[in-house]
Amino acid sequence: MEHKIFEQYLYKGLGFPVLLLNVPMVKFDDDWALDLDHELLERGVLLRLCQKSSSLKGNEIKFIRTFFSKTLQQFGDQFRVTPACVKKWEDRGDQFTSMHETTEKMIRLFVLNNLLPEKFTETQTLNYRENIKKLIDQHFTLWRAWEETSGGELRMKRQKERSQANSTGPTLQALDYG
C-alpha cells in the first residue's frame, strides 16, 4: 500500500465538509482514503464543534446526535425539547439552527461530558486527551469551508500557511491511542 500526506483533503463523511490539512492518506486500488483512527477524528471534530464561536448548524446537530446513538426522541428528552424540534434543527442543514442559546450551551456541555469512552482508566483518559490535542494542534487543522463568509478564501489561505509553519511532521500513525 502506498502512503502519502495530503496538504489538503476535503472530507465529507460527517454530514458536513471538513477541510483536513496535512492528513495521512493510504491508497487502496486507485482511491485514496484517510489513514487515521476515524473515531478519534470524529471526537476531534466534536471537540472543535464545542469550541467554535458561531452557533451550531443543522448538520452539526445531526452529527452530534448520531455520534451518541440517540434517537430524535432521546436527544429531545435530553434537552427538554420535542423530537419535532430536533428534526427542525437538523433539517436546517448547513444553516444555523436558531435554537435558544441556553439549549446550545447544554448540547455543547453534553458533548464535552460524554466525549471520552466510559471504560477508560485515569491514565488512558489522560493519554486519550493528549492524543486528541495532538491530532487537532499538530497533525491537521479542522476547517469547515462552507462556514466561511466573505473573505473566506483569504482566511483559508492564512490558516493553511499557519498550519504549514507550525507542522511538526509526524503522522497520526505514530500516536499511541492507549
Overview in brief:
The chain has 178 residues and is α+β, with helices and mostly antiparallel strands. It has helices spanning 38-51, 58-67, 72-78, 83-91, 101-113, 122-139, 152-166; strands at 2-11, 18-28, 31-34, 142-143. It has one domain (2-174).
Secondary structure: elements and pairs:
Elements (H helix, E strand, L loop, with lengths): L1 E10 L6 E11 L2 E4 L3 H14 L6 H10 L4 H7 L4 H9 L9 H13 L8 H18 L2 E2 L8 H15 L12
Antiparallel strand pairs: 1-2, 2-3, 2-4
Helix pairs in contact: 1-5, 1-6, 2-4, 3-4
Describe the structure.
The C terminus is likely disordered. By secondary structure, this protein is of the alpha+beta class. Strands 1, 2, 3 and 4 form a 4-stranded antiparallel sheet that branches. Helix content is 48%, strand content 15%. It has one domain. The chain has 7 helices and 4 strands. A hairpin with a 6-residue loop joins strand 1 and strand 2.
